[in-house]
Structures are given as structure tokens and as C-alpha cells.
Amino acid sequence: MNQEQFICAHEQQWLIMEVLLDPVLLKDMKEETRSDLSWFKQWRKKRKDKKKIIITPYQKKIRALKLESILNADFPELYREMCHHLSLAQARRYSPYLIEHLSSLVDRAHQVFYRQSHIHSESAFAALIFFFTHQFPQTVRSESRWVWLSSAVFYLPLIFMIVLVQFWPEFVYSVMSPDQVMGMESMYDPQADHIGRERGSDSDSKMFGFYILNNTGIGFRTFATGLMFGVGSLMTLLFNGLHIGAVAGHLTQIGYGSTFWPFVSGHSAMELTAIALSGAAGLKLGFSILIPGRKSRYQSLLDAAKISVKIMAGAAVMFFIAAFIEAFWSSSQTIASNVKYAVGIAMWLLVFSYFTFSGQEKNQSIKHKAHKKELEK
Amino acid sequence: MKLESLTLEVRPRTPWESMDVAVRLAVTHWRLLLSSWMITVFPLFLMINIILLEEYPYWAFFIVWLLKPLYDRVPLFVLSRVIFSEKTSWRDVLNAVPAFFKTGVFSSLTLYRLDPSRSFGLPVRQLEGLKGKSRRERMHTLGRAYNNREVLFFILCAHLESLISLGLIGLALMMLPTDMAFQSVETIFTGEDPGLLSNILSMVLYFFVMMIVETLYVSGGFVLYLNRRTILEGWDIELVFRKLSKRALLQKQQEGALVQGSLLKSKVQSILIVLFSSSLFLAGNGLPQNAQALSQNASTAYEKILPPVSAQKLPPEASSESIKETMESPAFNRFKQVDTLEYTGKKEEQDDLDLSSSWLTDIFESIGKTLAFLFEIILWCIALILIFLLVKYHQHLQFGFGKLFKPKEKSTPIPEILFGLDVREESLPDDVAAQAMALYQQKDYRASLALLYRATLAYLVNNYEFTLAKGATEGDCLKWVETRLSSKIESIELEKKYFAELTRAWQLTAYAHRFVPEEQMARLCQDWSRFYDKRVDSQTNNSRGLNDE
Amino acid sequence: MLDTVKTAETPEGVELKLTCVSFYARGVAWLLDILIQGFIIILFLFILPRLGDFGLGLLYIGMFFLNWLYPVFFEVYFQGQTPGKKAMKIQVLLIDGTMVTWGASLLRNLLRTVDFLPFFYALGVMTMLMSRDFRRLGDLVANTVVVYKRELKDNLFLDEKILDAQAQTYAPEIVLSAKEQQTIISYAERQNKLSPERAEELALLATPLLNDLPVKSKQSLDDRVNHSEFPASDRLLGIANYLMGRR
Hints:
The structure holds three protein chains of three kinds. Chain A is mainly α. Helix content of chain A is 79%, strand content 0%. Chain A has two domains: 111 residues, no CATH class; 233 residues, no CATH class. The termini of chain A are far apart. Chain B is mainly alpha-helical. Chain B folds into three domains: 231 residues, no CATH class; 81 residues, no CATH class; 132 residues, Four Helix Bundle (Hemerythrin (Met), subunit A). Helix content of chain B is 69%, strand content 1%. Chain B has 24 helices and two strands. In chain B, α2 runs antiparallel to α4, α4 packs across α7 and α20 packs antiparallel against α21. The C terminus of chain B is likely disordered. By secondary structure, chain C is mainly alpha-helical. In chain C, the strands form two sheets. Chain C has a two-stranded antiparallel ribbon. Chains in contact: A-B, A-C, B-C.
């Protein structure tokens, strides 16, 4: 078979493939064959026709295709055929142009064929839900040792600082500048003007945006800098722990606890856990290079990265939730402190039980069925 | 210059790709490049600084910067040799230094110092050895009809230089304690007369950054130049053709060696004649000065058939004509009409929106407040819905909350064929065990075991949600049965044992052509009807219950 | 041989050629993206603060998404191309030549933070210099690679004959390898882009294909150009015709 016969024999398929790979073209062709177009579409079609004054012979060939043949085409089958054609063309040494054309078609088809199925399908939403009900908590559980390590690095200095500042108040200045301390004090001063006055939704929204930008950004950085052998994550965790501890300890020590603790109780569960999780993801990344186990260092890093990015994505959403609570609930002045404490505790319980229990699917459902069947007999 | 010894994959590339290849090239030979830079440029640099730095630091900077085109000749020399896989050491570089000064150094340091396409033009000066008018013409030929990416490339490299210096400064500042870092930044910006130490430091920094970036820059220009010539002169084609003729010659020689006597002679003669005539033919075209030498030395003509390509010049007029033709060819003359809408009515006078006016601001603010209120309400609604869902499905949270939302698995239909065996129940005979036994007695061992095995699979498929991937083997089935079926119930345990035995028997028969003895076959058939036969099930349900006990 | 092409094999056994992109083109793409992001932020700054504090809130959220998720969104939904990458005709792919996934894209863009250190991607550039396929740290971790997007060239070959149909057809007298055949064909296709003299000169290199060619050795090249006689070139075109199946 010479090249021209080869082209004659298979060109139809290539053209169909071309259309299938180009959603815009496909849509156009579907529209063109439909007679009952609305006036708007007709108008648009007219404009389009105006544009297409010059049509290459190739486009003409595509236009000449029958719509049924495209709709009936089986994409995987066609893709396999194309691969076959390409190999044939290479083996038979057809023109480089032809081979280039075929291989670029195969290339594009390959990308469509092996695309992640979740991206464009309708099950994207379901996949999202599945991520938060199953994958995220499962991943956190399976990586619990990094979570515990990161929590230790984060919470221990926090608690340590709170306690320390109670006895030696001046230690607060070891992690914060006097200006920062002054700022903190004025924010939570029970005698201040803004305390006891309800903030409008607009300033709440502003703070919501700010918390998202700032806190989530910190979380991302904590994660990313973990790549430097975990040092970045450790430093960020440690520093944040000390800082938060110093603020909490100082405000309690000077007697502003009545405004401070109700404020932070609501969002603390989400935010602190999210920080610890970002740190855990970063630590996993960094330590996978240091302690690769039986894999090569690079392979170990690749595997760790796939897992840790899941944790980070979940943590990012937790940051969003924390931002929402912090901006709209914690800031509210009309809600009684006890209610806020109650909600805070509830949130902690929720977070804890979410990570402990959620997504523990019984894997033995089939065994169950076999059991039942046997018992029925 | 021999194209055959090129270490670079030759093919027409886009300018961007050429730059990428240049990076690869420089990185591959970084040791040689940097060391030759150190032995040639560093002494010069040291000398300038010793003389000038203390007294006139700015002059020192200026001169170091000014002499860049001179330094460029070092990496280009190295690259032009390693690219043709010539062994090069720093000794060769040192020996070549005097020659650098004959390559139009003066004009490139003065008139062309600010020429952004410096590195692209350098090979023309240094490797082709062209000067003055002929150089300009050559550059014209090379640069025409070519989107001048070398200028863009220059800009990119300039940025790379500042980027790497900034990076190194940043690194240095990170190492310093914070206070000192701030101080040193301050001294940079306040512009007080910097001390000698800081001058030396910045000079050293400049030297190293220059070393890296100039190397990349020269290599980029060189590869762009090579690529341009590849396109203009078809180097990739030339390479293959040369190899082709060499191969053909070898082949003919081998053939010739096999053939005896006169035949051989005539062949060689004919080859020589062809070679000779073509060499003459060639000698006539490019370089007349080589022609005599070639015809004198016809036996080695083949090796020298072509003059070094670098010395060939395209007559500018001829090439301009061909380029013109090319540009007029249909490939370059496709037009596309693009319609855009343009507003042709009168332009309205633009209102000067006085945004500071209070009522407008108020309106905006109140819109903002309303929106914010709506926003908050929406967010709260979402939160409430989430809480509601949480409460409603809280018991699912423990055992797979997400089962409700799990991505829809396509319900796999009950398979009808497993590795070529029809496992529909309808396809089975009524009394499987008896039929199998009958087949066995007719010595159709294979068919009998196949029937038994098939029937068992059919039972599994229809009663235990037995699903396997396409292409599963008997082993996979066995594994599935052993892992998925509960082992707590004794009868199922027996069933598993039975299935294992049956599988082994079937595999022996089907693949090893070893047949099971009759008593085993009989037992298998008997057990089969005990475990799987529905009719037996209904009749002997009670007795079976007793058995299990 | 020195090259920037990386091959990946598909499960169907077809080899994909991925041409890796170094920091020059990527830098320009990044710059374009930054300009676009900056433009949007300036637009926001101009409009949103008019809405008071609520506007500021939106501005912050917008900044967050622009900063962190803008590249992820484009890479996942637009064939691995942010607007800047699209302008430079480059795209992000997984190392096996398939489309970039959510996880990989998120990973490589979050790790920009590290690549950016200590100043303007200095670490990223160093890693690109050292790694084989110009991959920065984010690419190494996410197992992605930035390549030139393959664009379909002219489809003319399917419709028009590139070669002059008038040219005669010759069968080559020796057996040609695949590469040689393809080179002869690409010679025919590129022939009109070379100057005629050079084309003739190249054709003469393929001596074994030029047996019993009427060579007038006395004639100089210039003469032949004047008479527009290119025997060797015509012969090769004839062979190319033969190889392309016009027998």
C-alpha cells in the first residue's frame, strides 16, 4: 500500500478524530445540522460564516463529514486505530509530514484519553464529597505519626509559653515587640470602645477576606518550606506556637481573658488543627528525603508528596471554615461567653471525632452478605 | 569543521528551543568552560582591580564591564571545539588567546559594544573570521527573514544576571544576622562612599555572576547561530547524505572484495570516476581556490569533497531572491479575515465621575453594606446546611458517611463469560454432575472438568457477587474465593477447599494435559452436587443441615 | 547527542516526544502571568474599595485566589496552560505525557514558595540548571515537566502535492534506511527554502544516488544557475517522489 492509498483508506477516521478532539468544532457541527436554530444562534452563525471567508481544503474535508459518523464514533477504538496507523506509517517510512500529523493527533488523543476522569465529569462534586468524608480523614489517620509530631512541635511551645508568661510576664517580649504587644492589648481591652459594640457585616466580611488571605497563606508556606528537609515547617510551627502562646498567656495574665478566650474559642479547633496539619504535610515531605526507607530518596519524595498534598488541600478548607467562624461568629459581641465556650468545645469534639471516626468503612461488606446468605439457609 | 563529529542533535529548531539547547550545552561542559574562564579572564580581572580598584572603583567596574566582548571569545572558543568533539584542555585555550585579538576586538569593544545581538554575531567574527563589509553582509544574510530573537535573548540574559546577583545577595543577607543585614542594605541605598572591603566583595560577586551568565549568553548566541545556519543550509540533510554516501561506498567496497579480478577493478574504477567527476564538479562551485588541490589529490578527494562549510558564502543576491520566492509562496500568504465590532456613533462626553463627592461615596458604601449583609447571610445559610447535613447523617459519619455520595460506580453486570467459559446458568445442563461423569467415562476428560469448573463459576457469579477484572486467571478466582468468603462457617470452609481442589484439577487437565484419576473425579462430581446443585438443595436441605452440624 | 527532547512511551507503544522548556521561555511566561495578575489586582483595587469594607474583603479573597490558585485553575482546566504559558505555546504535563492532575498542579504551584527563595526563583533556576529536563523543585516533587505544546503544522500534505508532479520518478539504486528516506523527503519539502545553489550542493553529497547522471564537469555552478539546471537536485526530487509512493 503506498502512501496515497494509505491516506485514502484512513483519512476519514483521522478527520473524525480531529473533530472529536476539538469540542468547539464538534459543537459547531452539531449546530449547523440542526435546522430549528433560535434567531440568536442564526445571527451568530451568519457572523461566523462571514469570518470564514477562506476555508482550507482540510477544513472543507472536515465540514464534509457526516454528523452521524462522528456521533457514532467510538473514541477509544479510534484512538487505538490511530496508534496503529502511526506505527504503520513509521514502519513504512511515509512522508515526515504525514507522520508528524498522525503523531500530533495521537499525542492530543493520548492526553484526552488518559485525562483524570474527575475533572470534567459530573461526578466531580461527588468526588469532592468523597474526599472530605473518606480520603481526607483516612489520610490523616494513616499519617498520624507526622500529625502527632507536628502537633507536639506546635502545641507544646504554645502551652509552655502560656504557663511561662503567667509567672514571668516579661517573657512575652522575647517573641513579640512592644508595639505588637500594645496592639494586642488595645484589641482585647474590655474597657475599649469597640468591645461590646456589634460590628457590621461589612467589616466582618473584610476580616473574613483577610483571614483567608493571611492564615491560609501561612498554612501553604508552612507546607512548602517543609521541602527543605522539614526545617521550614518545624520553624514555622515552633514560631507560631510560641507566638500564639505568648499572646494568650499575656492577655490572660493582665486580666483580659474575659474578652480573649470567648473570642478564640470558636475557631480555635479548626485553625490550630489546620496549622498542625499543614505542618504535618510539610514534615512528611521533608522527612521523606531524610528517611527514605527502602525506596530511593527521590521516589520516596514523590510518594510522600502525593499524600501530603491531600492533607494540605484538606487543611486549606479547614482554614476557610476557621476564617468564617472567626469573622462572623467569634467577633460577635452579643453572644454570651458561655455559649461561645460551648460551641468551642463542640467544635473541638467535632474535629476530633471527624478525624477519628469518619471514613472508616467496613471493608467486609461482602463477607457480611455471604454470612447472611448462609444464615438464611 | 566536520559535521559528522557534531555532538549536537541537528535539526531546525525554533529560537526558544535553541536557547534551551544552549543551556544544556553549557551545563554539559561546565567544568571546561568555567576553568578556561578562570585561567584567562581571572588574571585580567585581577590586574584591572589591583591597578584601579582602590583609587578609582567606578572606573574598575566600568572597565570590567567594558571588556565583556573580549571575555566572550573564551567560552565561544571552547564551545566551538567541544561541539565537534575535539579534545580541548585549558592549554589549548591559553594557546588560542593571542588569536582572539585578531577577531575584530577593537570594533566590538567600541562601535559594537552596545550591540544587543553581540553573542549571535560573535561566531561570524571569531569562527568565520569575517570583518568589515563582508561581516555586515554575512550578518544581514543570517538575520534576514528571521524574527530577531537574539535581541530578546540579550534582554533575558541581562535579567538573568541581575536575578542571580540578587539571589546571591539575598543568600548572603540570609546568612548574616538581621541587624547587620539591615545595615548593609542601608549602606547600599544611602549611597555613602562604600569601603574597600565592600567594593572587593561586590567585585567578586560581579565576577562570578558574569562568569555564569556570559557563558550562558555566549552559548545561547552560538546555538542560535548554528540553528540559523542549519535552517539556511540544511545541515541535518547534509549530515545524513554524507553518511549515506560513506555507507554506500563501504558497501560497494565489500561487495567488490567478494568479486574477483577484473570485475573488482572496473568497479573501483567506476567509483573513482564517479568520485572524481563529482569532486571536480563540486570544486567548480563553491571555492575555486580549492579546486586545484582537489583535482591533484583525487584519491583522497572523497574526504575533502566539500570545503569547510564555514568558509562558504551564499551570494547575497541569490539568497535574497530565493527568500523572496519563499515569502511569495502560498505557505506564507494565507490571509485570515477577522471581523471586529467598532462603535461608530458619537462618543459621549465622558462624565467626570467625581468620586470624592459625598453622595456617590455614600451610595457605593451602602451598596457595599447591603452586599456584605447578603454575603453574610449566604455564608450562614451554607453553614446551617452543612450543620443540618452533619446532624442528619451523623451515624453515617462513622461507617462511611460518604457512601451516600460515593462517586457512582458503574454497576458491573453479572459477567457472562469468564476466560472463555460461558458462565450463564442457562447454558448448563440440568444435571451437571452426572453429565460431567458421563463425559469422563467417554474419556473426554477435558470437557468434563471444564463443565464442572464452569458450573462452579456460574454458581459463584450468581450467588456471591463474584466480580473479577477482565483477564483474571483461575488463580485470581481462587484467591478471590479464599479471601472474600467468610471462613467462620464450616460449610463455606469446605466449599473453599473444594474449589481449590477443583481448580487444581482443572488446571492440570487444561494446561498440563494430566488427567485426574477416576475416583477423584467421582468425588468431585459428588461433592459438586452436594454443594451447588439446586435440585439437591431443595430436596436434601434438612439432611445437609444435619451434615453440617 | 545533545538534545532537549525527552521521550515518553504510551501504553499503546507509541513514543511521545516532549521538548522540555528551559527558564528563558518559562520566565517570559511567568512574567506575562504576573502582569495579568497584577492588572487584575489593580483593577480590583480601583473598583472594590468603593464598596467599603466589604469590597476590601472581596479584594483579599481575590488576592488569595489569584496568588495561589490562579495557576492551578488554568493548568487543570486549560490543558496545562496558564495565559502566559499559552502565549509562549508551552504547557505543563505529567512526566508520562498525560494531562496534569489536580494534586500535581496544586503541589507544583504551592512549592513555588520554595523555588522562589531566596530571591526571584534563584533556587528554581539552579535546580533547572542541574536537573535533566529543566525541572524546578516544584516540578521534581509533583513529577511534572514543562514542554512546548505541539502545534499542528500545515495540513497541506493531505491536499496538495508538495512535490512537483511533473518531476520524474526514479527508483533509488541502493537500499535506503528509514532515516535516509525521510531525509530525502524532507529535503524535497525544504528544498525551496534553501538557495538553489545550496540545494544542488546538498544533493551532490548523496553521490551513490546520482549514478549515471549527466554531469558536465566543466560547467561552473554559476553557469548552471543561469540556465537553471539542477540535475542532482532534480534527481533527488524524483527519488523523493518515488519514496512518497508516486510511482
